[in-house]
Amino acid sequence: MKTVYTCFCTDVIHAGHLNIINEARKLGRVIVGCLSDEASIRYNKFPTVAQDDRIKMYRSLEGVDEVVIQNDMMYDDVITLIKPDYIVHGDNWKDGPESFIRTHVEELVKSYGGELVDVPYTYNEEVKKIDMQLREKLAMPEYRRKRLRQLLAMTPIVKAMEAHSGLTGLIVEKTVVEHEGKLDQFDAMWISSLCDSTAKGKPDIELVDMTSRFRTIDDITEVTTKPIIFDGDTGGLTEHFVYTVRSLEKMGVSAVIIEDKKGLKKNSLFGTEVKQTQATIEEMSAKIAAGKKAQLTDDFMIIARIESLILEQGMEDALKRAHAFVAAGADGIMIHSRKKDPDEILEFCDKFRADNKETPIVVVPSSFNTITEEELAAHGVNIVIYANQLTRSAFPAMQQTAEDILRYHRAKEVDDRLMSIKQIITLIDEL
Ligand code: SPV
Ligand code: MG
Fold it and tell me: In this predicted model, what pLDDT tens digit does every residue of 9-30 receive, in sequence order?
């Protein structure tokens, strides 16, 4: 009997999947691969059904003879192991980023005389509705909020990208690339105080008030599903911070990062060029403890950001603070640096990890940008935040366009570098 393999990464079985199984069983014994959580999150939606439950669900389907776990999005693991005579898949993977997986699978399967069978993809009203419902479920606060903790357990390093509007949120949500034999996407969004303030034409000094910052979160949560890490600046007065924690939780934000500074906050990348005052360990610890006490769910995280390296207070001070803030209840530590060289960050991570294996470490490699995610993960970093690159890429492009239109007294000269009118009017999907 021939062996037929098909890979599922769905949380809900609809007519399309049943059709694939029907076509597959005409060819032989059907093995369904359950794409692992770790592989799914690199190019697909975040799973809303646990991996073990997905396996059970696939196993219960009529016509399915066996279910295996597929860990490799490129299929190498299962194909090497099973060497199926046929691989069956919906023909929707002929387009878009997945087409690259299809090409790879076709080569693999042909190399030993197997065959790839594309089944016409079922896209009817029921399938559309299920897709939409899944997206909406992922966007609900109670599902979104816990997703950062889930991601931390699933992936060696969570990648967060800055978002400050619905549009930048959509870029973080939807961008998928193929590179070096893999597909990849961002895991989470960072609502940067610098970029949120800059988008409003204001300096990054806690001038944009919380109500306005929440409005930005709303704009983003309306159109996205990925988890949110909120830049809470200093957290403000402890008496105010406790309310901020409650509001963020309610909105479905996964984490707030607060920095150990007080008084007029300036952006860390100024370092010691401007006057900035570090809060004492006691002051910051009290704020963290009050925030932890105020939070209502177990999902939400309060991450303590240490400014000792930025303010040139030394490694020992940074480490002492890290351990004290964890003792006060912090769910993670962000260590920041404005050096070009990542050495001091890595030294901190290694020394912190020598005494603390669990607490997530967050870094923001804006200045020390030569280091890769893999290298950071090897030093115990769990979350990497690309804090301002979308804003910094958009601003010069817009400024150049404005200058050129003034220069040429018409828009023709800039047109080649613009998105087409057709693209802009169809950029945002309508319901
Ligand atoms: C932000 O993005 O606002 C940050 C990171 O707080 S930094 O600008 O490097 O201080
Ligand atoms: Mg900030």
Answer: 999 999 999 999 999 999 999 9
Cα 154 to Cα 409: distance, rounded to the nearest angstrom: 54
From atom 2 of ligand 1, which residue's Cα is the shortest distance away? 192
**What domains can be seen in the chain, in order of their start residue?**
3-129 (3.40.50.620), 140-387 (3.20.20.60), 393-427 (no CATH)
User: How many whole angstroms from 196 Cα to the centroid of ligand 2?
Assistant: 9
Residue with tokens 């961002």: 186
Q: In the chain, pLDDT over 70 holds for what percent of residues? A: 100
User: Active-site residue among 85, 196, 204, 260?
Assistant: 204
CB-CB contact of 44 with 138 (8 Å): no
Cα gap 157→171, rounded to integer Å:
20
Whether the Cβ atoms of residue 33 and residue 105 lie closer than 8 Å to each other = no
Closest ligand 1 atom to residue 387 Cα is 2
Triad 223, 229, 230: Cα angle to 5°? 95
DSSP 273: G
Instruction: Say if pTM beats, i.e. exceeds, 0.90.
Output: yes
Q: Which two tokens stand for residue 431?
A: 């319901």
Q: Tell me whether residue 350 is one of the annotated catalytic residues.
A: no
Number of neighbours of residue 263 by Cβ within 10 angstroms: 11
Work out which ligand 1 atom sits closest to the CA atom of 366. Answer: 9
- How distant is the alpha carbon of residue 387 from its chain centre? 12
CA atoms in the 13 A half-sphere facing the CB of 310: 29
